[in-house]
Amino acid sequence: MEKTAKILGILGGGQLGRMSALAAARLGIKCVIFTDGEDHPASEVSWKTIVAHYDDQKALGQFAELVDVVTYEFENIPVETIRYLQSKTSVFPDDKILEIAQDRITEKSFLNTIDIPTTRWKEIKTVSDIEGCFSEWNCEELIIKTTRFGYDGKGQSKINKTDNINKIFTSFDGQNLIAEEIVNFTHEISVIVARDKDGKMETYGPAHNVHENHILATSSCPAPISSPLKVRATVLTERLAKKVSLQGVLALEMFVTKDGGIIANEIAPRTHNSGHWTIDACTVSQFENHVRTVCGLPVGMPIQHSNVKMINLIGNDIDNVGDYLKNYKACVHLYGKSETREGRKMGHITILN
Ligand code: AMP
Fold first, then answer.
1. How far is the C-alpha of 106 from the C-alpha of 99, rounded, in Å?
2. What is the pLDDT of residues 11-23, one digit of tens each?
3. Which residue's alpha carbon is at the smallest distance from atom 1 of ligand 1?
4. For the residues 151-180, what does the mean pLDDT come to?
5. 85-113: b or e for each residue (b if 16 or more CB lie within 10 Å)?
6. Cβ proximity of 208 and 195 under 8 Å
7. What are phi and psi of 115, to 5 degrees?
C-alpha cells in the first residue's frame, strides 16, 4: 500500500477545521492546527496547535516539519503562505485554486473560460464604469462587491440607478471592485465535490440554501428543483474540480434562475457550511472525504440515507439548543466558541427525516 499521511496540518482554527479534525481522528489521523486567532475551536479536538501569523516563516517551517500534508479551512490565507509551505511539504487543495477563489474577478474570469456561466460582471475602477453597467445592462439596480475578502454579505452593496453613485463608490475607500448584474433567482444551491489523487470524484447535493441577513440560515437536501437542474449543477461542479486538478474538497455556490438556468456565484476551495448535513445524513461526510482526499486515501462514496435540513445556530440562536436536545430527529453540533456574538456561527442542527 502507498504511504498515506498520518499527521494532517490545518491552516485555520474554526469550526470547519474542528469538524475535519473530528473526521480525521476516526481515521486514525492526528491534526495540527495553525491559526492566528484567539479563539480556535479546532484546537480542542486536535493533537497540537501553533498560534502565529500566517506570514511567520519560522512558525510555518515548524508546522511543516510536524505534519505529512497541509490543508486549509478558510480561503483568506495568503497565497504566499501556501506557496511557502508547498516548498516544504504537500498542500491540498493547491495554490492555484486558492488564488482563483480569492478574487471575484479571477474567479468569474476562470469560470467563464471553462464554460461555467456567471451573471454579467465588470471590473469597476471609476464611477463612470458603474454608470456604464447601468446603461449596458439596461437595469435599474446592480450589486457592487469588493473583489477580495468578502464573506457573509460583507463588502457588498446593492445600488439603484437613482442613488448617489459617487458617494457609494467613495465609501469603498479605493478597494478593488466588481459590479454584478442582479440575478433573478428562484433558489440558491450548492454542490460539494471531493476528488482524490487518482481523479475519482464524489459529490454532495445540490443542497438548497436559504440566507438571512446574508448569512446561511438553512441548507436542505434534496433541493426542491428538477432532476435535470440537479444534474446540470453537479456536472458544472465536477467540471470545475477536474479543470483545476483538485485534490481535496470544494463547493460551488450557484443560482437557479427564474428562466430555468444555472449560474455560478462563488467557489469555496474547502469544506462548506452548506455541507454540514453530510455528517449526519451520509455514510461518508464532506469532512471525512476532505481528510481522505488530502491525505492520499480514496474518496468514499457518500450514500445519503435521510432527507435533511441543516439549521445554523447564529449568535443567540444557541439559546434554543435545549429544544433541539429534546427532539429525537435533531443532531446537535456545538462549536465550543467561548463568546457568543451577533452573526457568529455557534453551532448547527441537522434535522433528519
Ligand atoms: P456572495 O458574497 O457573492 O456569496 O453573496 C452573498 C449573497 O448575496 C448571495 O448568497 C445571494 O443571496 C446574494 N447575491 C450575491 N450576488 C448576487 C447577484 N449577482 N444577484 C442576486 N443576488 C446576489
1. 8
2. 999 999 999 999 9
3. 153
4. 88
5. beeebbbbbbbebbbbbbbbbebbebbee
6. no
7. 60, 35
d(CA 49, CA 46): 7
Distance 237 CA to ligand 1 centre (A): 18
Q: Which atom of ligand 1 is nearest to the CA of 119?
A: 19
Q: Do residues 20 and 291 lie in contact, with contact meaning Cβ atoms separated by under 8 Å?
A: yes
| CA end-to-end distance (rounded Å), the chain | 39
Rounded-to-integer distance, Cα 73 and Cα 335, Å: 15
Q: Does the predicted TM-score (pTM) go above 0.90?
A: yes
Pick from 115, 297, 305: nearest CA to 195: 297
Which grid cell sits at 25?
A: 481522528
Label residue 168 exposed, middle or buried (CB < 10 Å: 0-12, 13-18, 19+). Answer: middle
Scan for cell 455556490, then name that residue.
253
Strand (E) positions, 226-321? Answer: 248-257, 262-268, 308-314
